[in-house]
Amino acid sequence: MPSSQPAVRPVLAALLAALVIASSVLVSGPATALPGAQAARVESPSAPSVPDDDAPVTMDLVSLSPTSLTPGGTLRAEVEVTNASSAPLTDLDLELRTRTSRVTDREALASWQAEAGPDVEGPALATASGTPPAS
């Protein structure tokens, strides 16, 4: 019997896509051509790549709640961004996106996992913009 509550996996996939988008913007600066950007293909990683030890910007998911989201509910994600470079981070954008289509076979899942770039398909469900507070 279908459940009236959305599954947690699509929400986590959307959050992962948002984190990948934000990390690419943070590392490379503001991307004005973001909607038309093509994601770079990687050989088949099973998870997002681990940043180099000398990467200037890192992002960590601190918390994600609730674990089960009701229709009309609010998903709260806390992300910690660390800037180890000497340049300040300005004009940041973080976008949350999701897809309504579901992965129904292993080939589609493998293709989705192989994507290492930002997923910019469809409109952003939520956008957070601004300059981070000075530390």
Automatic annotation (TrEMBL):
Top-level taxon: Bacteria
Signal sequence range: 1-33
Keywords of this entry: Signal
Family matches, as Pfam families: DUF6049
Region annotation (Disordered) ranges: 39-59, 111-135
Name of the protein: Uncharacterized protein
The keyword Signal is annotated on this UniProt entry: yes
